[in-house]
Amino acid sequence: MPFLERDDVRIHYAVHGDGPPLLALAPGGMSSEMSRWDALPWHPVDALSSCYTVILMDQRNAGRSTAPIDSATGWRTYGSDQLAVLDHLGIERCQVLGCCIGCSFLLGLIELAPQRIAAGVLMQPIGASATNDQAFRHLFGGWLETMRDLHPSMTESDWNALHERLFGGDFVFNVSRDFVRGIDTPLLILAGTDEFHPPATSFELAKLVSNVTFIEQWKDAGHIDQAAAAIEQFLRDHPVS
User: b vs e for 174-209, b when ≥16 Cβ sit within 10 Å of the residue's Cβ?
Assistant: First the structure.
């Protein structure tokens, strides 16, 4: 599979299908890699590649992608990788689908380059709650254990600062409520239901966004087919132009 290489960054990506471009940003927290889609009851390649060019990628330092980590690493660093993949493929404008941390990546892309995002699908957005700080610390810690030896220049203080830059905020961590309130990009939100994907985050996003379609139940066997049809309809209703 192909790689995008720039400076010391090597991003693993894959392209499936043919049609309008759709960037799919995988779940998995800091280990957001394309194989994480396999664990979901709905897979963007299986569902959409007959009508869309579906672009998958391993985020930096996840899967087969590698990159330096330093005091400048943050949400915008990931966004620049995602835009670089689109640039590399000659894609000026696309639809974006994110799951889990991919939802925050999507919102970050709308902040960085709103003109390039025609529409977005957010599947179980991550978010801060009164009770999940330790869960996110534990998730970050598991990823950190795989990174320490690869980045020996990073001190414990550096790692703590990175965690704070990524997950020390509130709401969806990387953009503010005021920013979300001003989004006019059409969004489809499929609600989260657990500790990492608090239902309250999904409901608040749906209340703040002006142009939104909201689906509360979607992951169980009784709703997944209907949710899949809703995703396809939403993408048809808000095409890349």
Answer: bbeeebbeebebbbbbbbbeeebbbeebbebbbebb
Q: Determine the Cα angle at 64 with ends 78 and 149, to 5°.
A: 85
Give me the helices (H) in 58-217, please. Answer: 75-88, 101-112, 133-147, 156-167, 177-181, 199-208
The H-assigned helical ranges of 14-61 are 44-48
- Length of the chain counted residue by residue: 241
Round to whole Å and give the CA distance between 140 and 53: 32
- pTM, to two decimals: 0.97
Q: Please name the amino acid found at residue 45.
A: V
Amino acid in position 163: H
Q: How far apart are CA 239 and CA 95, in angstroms?
A: 7
The tens digit of pLDDT for each residue in 159-178 reads: 999 999 999 999 999 999 99
Q: State the DSSP string of 195-233.
A: SSS-HHHHHHHHHH-SSEEEES--SSTTTHHHHHHHHHH
Please write the tens of the pLDDT for every residue from 121-132: 999 999 999 999
Residue 128 CA neighbour count, 13 Å, CB half = 16
CB of 104 closer than 8 Å to CB of 189: no
Eight-class DSSP state of 66: B
